[in-house]
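Narrative progress, year one. The postdoctoral researcher (J.K.) led the effort to move from monomer predictions toward full complexes, under supervision of the PI. The following entry was the first complex the group processed end to end, covering 1443 residues in total.
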Amino acid sequence: MSHLLITPLLVPLLAAIGIFWMRSQPQGARRHIARALSTLSVLYLNLVALLLISAVSGGQTLSYALGDWPAPFGIVLVADRLSASLVWLTALLSLAAIAVALRGYDARGRHFHALFQLQLFGLNGAFLTGDLFNLFVFFEVLLLASYGLLLHGGGAARTRAGLHFVVLNLLGSSLFLIAAGLFYGLLGTLNMADMARLVGTVGAAERGWVAAAGLLLLTVFALKGALLPLHPWLPNAYASASLPVAVLFAVMTKVGAYAILRVETLIFGPLAGPLAGLYQPWLLPLALLTLVAGILGALSSTRLALQVAYLVVGSAGTLLTAFALDSATGLSAGLYYLPHATFAAAILFLLVESVALRRGALGDRLAPGVRVADGPILGALFFVAAVLMAGLPPLSGFIGKWLLLRAALDHAQAAWVLAVVLSTSLLAMVALARSGSLVFYRGEGGDALPKSLPALGGELLALLWLLGLALLLLVAAPAFLDFTDATALQLLDPQHYIDAVLTPHVEVP
Amino acid sequence: MLLAILLTLVVGPPLVAWLARFGRLNAAWGAGAVTLAAAYALWPALQGAMAGETQLQRIAWLSAQGLDLHFRLDGLGLLFVLLILGIGLLVILYARYYLTSRDSMGRFYAYLLLFMGAMLGVVLSENLIQLLIFWELTSLASFLLISYWQGRSDARNGARMALAITGAGGLALLGGFLLLGEMAGSYELSVVLASGESIRAHPLYTPMLVLILLGVFTKSAQFPFHFWLPNAMAAPTPVSAYLHSATMVKAGVFLLARLFPALSGTPEWSWLVGGAGLVTLLVGAVVALFQHDLKGLLAYSTISHLGLITLLFGIGTPLAAVAGVFHIINHATFKASLFMAAGIIDHECGSRDMRYINGLWKYMPHTAILAIIASAAMAGVPLLNGFLSKEMFFAEAVGAATQLRLGWLLPAAVTLAGIFAVAYSLRFIHDVFWNGEPIGLDRTPHEPPRWMKVPVELLVILCLAVGIFPSYVVEPLLRVAASGVLQGPMPSFSLALWHGLSPAMWMSVIALVGGISLYIARAPLFEIYARLAERPGMYRRAHHLLERLYLWAGAVTRLSTPERLPHMALWVLLFAMTLALTGALQAGAELQGGRTLLPMDLLGVVTTLVLALAAIATVLLYRQRLVALTLLGAVGLVVSLIFVRFSAPDLALTQLSVEVVSIVLLLLALYFLPQQESRATSPWVVRDLLIALLAGIGMALLTFAVLSREGQSISGFFLEQALPGGGGANVVNVILVDFRGFDTLGEITVLALAALGIYGMLDGIKLQGPEADSDGRRWDPDLYPPVVATLSRLLLPLALLVSMFILMRGHQLPGGGFIAGLITAVALVMQYLANGVAWTQARLPRNHHWLITLGLSLATATGLGSLLFAHPFLTSTFQHLHWPLVGDFELASAMLFDLGVYLVVVGATLLILVNIGLMHRESHTPLTDAEEEV
C-alpha cells in the first residue's frame, strides 16, 4: 500500500500540528523548532512532489481511497499529470517563501509557520482531491489560512483588504455549497469522476439545473481565479500582504484556474453530451476582459506593489484565455504559461519589497525621489523581471505567449485573442518601463534612507531560485512542452480519469 | 553562427561589466576583444557566404512548435554582419575616448555588446520567430542605451518612447509572422521565400503585410512613426552612430530586403512601402534643414535616407532592390562618420547648437575635412559613394514614373528631396566650420585625441574609395548581398561614375544647384518653419497620448475594479445569477420533477411563515442591531425545528448549539459597534431590494427543482454500510467520522484556523466600548448578579455530563463530537458570562491553544494509525465489546477521531469567545471589587 498521494497533505498537516505545540509566538528553542519543522516540511514536500510527478509522468492516473471506502462512496485523492505538476509548483514556490519568511517576517505576527503549513495543506488538498465536497473543504482551509496569513504583520491596510477578501470568499463558499447541494440532488454523487460519468446521462428536464449548478461553480472558481468581474478583491489583498505571503499567493489564483480547468475538462468535457463545453461561451470573453482590466490597472497604479498585483490579474486573464481555447494546443500553452506566471509574480513581489525597503519613506510609491540603495543590482533584476512578466523575448513569458497565439490561430475568435494579447503586452511593457524608470532612474541623493539596511540575503536567494526556475522553464522548454502536451491530451480524455477512479482498486505503485 | 551570437549576447556583457571593476579601459578592451572573437568565429561562414553560398545551422529546440534555433548566413546577412561588427569595432574605439570619467564604461560596453549580439541574431536568423526574439532584444538594448544617462529626463523619456514605438511594432510583427508562418506552412525563411506566389494569393495577405510593415516602419523610423528617432538622440553619440544610423534602424529595411521575394510585387506592397518611403524621404529631408541641433539634423537626415531605401524597395524592381542595398552600405558609412564627427564637435565645444558653434575650421581643420567629405557624400556629390547610389535611385524613380498616371510627380518629389538633402548637408558644413566665430562657448575648441579620429578617418576613406573605384571596392560585396536579397537572377548593372547624360544625371545637377540656392535663400524659410514649429510636434502629441492613456486607464480601472465591499459583493451576486439563469434557460429545464409532493400541513405552514417573517423582520429592523440579532436567533431556532420535523435530530442538535454559540459571539462583537446604524437611506435601496428578491426567488426555484425530483444517489450505500462497515448505527455520525472523515479533519482544521485567525487579529488591538447604551443608560455596576452566577455554577457539572454522554453515544445514537464540543463550550462560556472572566480564568486554563492542538493531534493520529496496518489514511476499525454492568457496545477507532473533533470544537469556541470577552474587560471600566481581589 503506497501512501504517496496522501503524503503531500500529511506532511504540512503534521508540521502544522507540531508547530502548534510550540505555542503561538514561540521564543528561544521553541522558535527554532517551529522554523525547523516548517523548513523540513517544505524540503520534504519538494521530494514528495518529485516522487509524485515521476509516478504519473508515464500517463497513469493514481487514486487513493481515504478510509478504504471505494469510490464514489468515500473520498478519493486523485493524481494525474495536472494535479502532480501543480503540487510540484507549489512545493517549488514554497521554498522561496520560506527562505524569505526565515528572514524575520515570521516573527511579525502569530502562528506564521502553522498558517503557512496549513496553507500548503489546503493547496495540495485542492489539487489532489477527486471529490467536489472535499474540494469545498480545502477551499475553506485555504480561505482561513490565507486570511490569517494576509493579516500577518497587522496594520489597517491589511485588515481592510483581509476583510474584503474573507467576506467575498465566504459569499463564494455559500455559492459553492449551494452548487454542491444541487449536484448531489441532481446527480446523487459528489465524486468528480462519478459526476463526469453521470452528467452525460442527465435527461432534458434536468439539464438546465445541472447547467445552473455548474455555472454557480464557475462563479466560485472565477472568484478564486480573479476572473473579471470577480477580481476586485485581489489587487489590494496582494499588494498589502507581507512578503512571504505575497510570494506564496502567486499560486493562489492558480487554484481557481485549476478548478475551472478540471471541471471544464472532466465534468463538462467531451463526455457531457449536450452539456459539453458549458464554460466555453463565458470563459474566453471574460478572460480577455480580465487581461485588459489587469493591464489597465497596472498602467494606472500609483504603487509598485499594486501594479504587480494588477499584472497578476492580467496574467490570470492570459492563463484562462489559453484554457478557454478548448484545444490541446491551447491547454498545453496555458499549462506552460501557468508556472511562468507564478514565478514571474513571485519574483516581482520579492523585488518590490526589497526596493521599497531601500527607498526610505517613499516605499513602493511610483514617484521620483531618493536613489534606491543597491540600485544597480535591483535595477538589473527588475529589468529582467519586467521582461519576464511582460512576456517579451527572450524569456519564458514570450514562449508562453507565442504558444498561446499559435494555439489561438485555429480558434474562431483568433483575431480578438491576437489583438488583445498583443496590445496588452505592449501596454504591460509601457507600464513597467514607466515604473522602472521612475523608481530606478529618477533618484537623487540617499540621505533619507535608514543607515543600517539588511543585506539582500534571503530575498536574493529566493529571487535567484525563482529566476533560475524561470530560466529552466525557458532552457528546458522542449521537455516541459512534451509534458504539458501530454497533460493536455490526458485532460481531454476524461474516460481515462473516470476509469482510474471508479474501477475498484487500481493498486498504487 | 550560434557561437558568435552567444559570445556577444551572453558572454560579452557580464564579462565587460566584470572587467570594468579592474579599471575603466578594460571594459573597452574587453568589448573589442569580444567583437573580434565573434568575427573570428564567423570567419569561415563569412567566406562561404562571399562565395555565394547560403549556410544554415540548425539546433533542434521546439520543433513541434516551429521554433528551432536556426541560423542562416547568405549575402544579405554577410553585408549586415560586416556592418555590425565593422562599425561596432570603430564605435567601441570611439566611445573609449568619448565617455568621460563620470560615465560607467562597464555598463556602456555591456549594453553595447548586448545590442550587438541581438542585432547579429536578427540578421543571422533563418527562423522568423527567432528573428523576432532578437528583434525585440534590439529594442530592449536600445532602451538601455538611450537611457544611459539616467539622470536626464530627455534620455528617460526618449528611451521610453523609442521602446513603446518599436515595441509596438515588434508585437505587430509577431502577429504578422504568425500569419505569414501559417500561410507558408513554416517559419523557416527558406520555405517562406520559396512560396511567394501562394503567400501573395492568400486572402490574409493584406492584414499580414500591414502587420509586418508596422514592425518595419516603426523600427526604421518611417513616417508616421519616425518621431521616436530624433528623441533617441539623447543617447551618447556612439550609440547614435551605431544603433540609430548604421545598424538598428536598418533592421527595418533589412526585413524589407529579406522578405522582398516573398512579399513584394503586389499593388499593396508598392503603395504601402513606396508611399511610406516617399513621404518619409520628403519629410525627413525638409525637417532636417531646419534643425539647429547637429544631431537633430543628422537624425532627420537619417529618417530621410531610410525613406529613400524604403522607397527603393517599394518600387519593387530587382534593380531598385540592388540600389537599396547599395544605399544601405553607403548611408551606414557616411552617416556613422558624421555622427562621430558631431560627437567630436559636441565633445570639444560642449554644445551641438549650430547657432552657436561656428567657424570651427580654424580650431579643428582635420576634423573639418573629414566632416566635409562625409557631408558631401550625404549630399550626393560625385566621386563619393553617396552619389552612386543616389544616381541609381534617381534612375529607378524615373523608371517607375513611366508605369504610373501622373508619374512625373515621383521624379519631381525625389528631386525636391535631393535639393533639401544638398541644402542641409551644406548647412552642416557651412554653419559649423565657417559662418563667423563661435558664440558663447565655455571652452576653446581644439582637435580631439588622435585615436578618436581614427574611426572617422577609416569610414571617410571608405566613402572615397567606394565613390572613386566602385567596381573594385564594393561591387563584389554588393552583388553577393543583392543576390541574397533577390534569391534569383541578378539584373545587369554597372557601377560607374558616368552613365552619360541620363535623366538621373540631370536630376543630380538640379539637386546640387537647387540645394545650394536653397541654402543661400534660407532665411525666409527658417522664419516660416519657426512659426510652424510652435505647434506641438508628433513626439509631444504621442507623449500627451501616453499621459492620457494613464488617466484613461485609471478611469477604466475605477469602473472595473470597485474598491468598496458592497460593490464587489454585488458583482459576485449578479454574476452568479446571470450565469445560473442563462445556463438554466439555454440548456432547458422543467421546474417540477416527478416526485409526488407532500400535502401541506398546519405545522409546516406555520413554521414556514414564522421563518419567513423572522427573516424579513431581521432585514427590516437591521438598524437596531440587538433586535435584529434576536430575530436572527429566531430564524436559527425555527430552522432547527424544521430539522426535527424532518427527522434529523443530529442536524437539529448541531443547529441549536451553533445558534447559541454564534449569537453569544455576535453579542460580544456587537458591543464594539455603534448600537444603531445611521439613519441615512441608501439611494440604491430599491436596486438592492430587487436583487435580493431575485436571488431569493432563484434559490427557491433551484431548491424546488431539486427537491421535487426523486433522483438516484449513493446514500443507500451509507445506510447499508454504516453498521457492518463503520461499526455505528448513527449514519450521520459514521459519515462524519468515517465515510467522510477526511472532510471532518479538514473542517476541524478550518475551525482551528478560524480560532487562531481571530486570536491573531485581536492580538494587540485596543477597542473602546461604549459608556452607555443607546438610550443613554450607563452600564449596570452589578456585573454578575449572584442568582445567575450560582445557577450557572450548579449547572456546569450537569452540562458537562450531558456533553460527555452525547459524545460517547454519538456513534450509535444522535450526538457526536461536534455537538458535544459545542455543548461543553456553551456550558463553559456561561461561566464566563455569569461569573466574569477573571473568576473563571482563575479556575480554567487561560490558554486554549493546547486543547485545539491536542484535538487535531488526536484526530490525525487516529488517521495515521491505519497506515501502520497498511490501510489508507483514516481507515477505521471497530470491536464489539461486552463490559460488565454497562452492557454490549461497539468500540470504534472512529470514536477516538470524534474525541479529537470534540476537543478542537471546545478549544476553538472557547478561544474565540474568551478572547473577544477579554477585550471587553480591557475596554470598559470600572472593575468591581470582587474582580480586583482576584
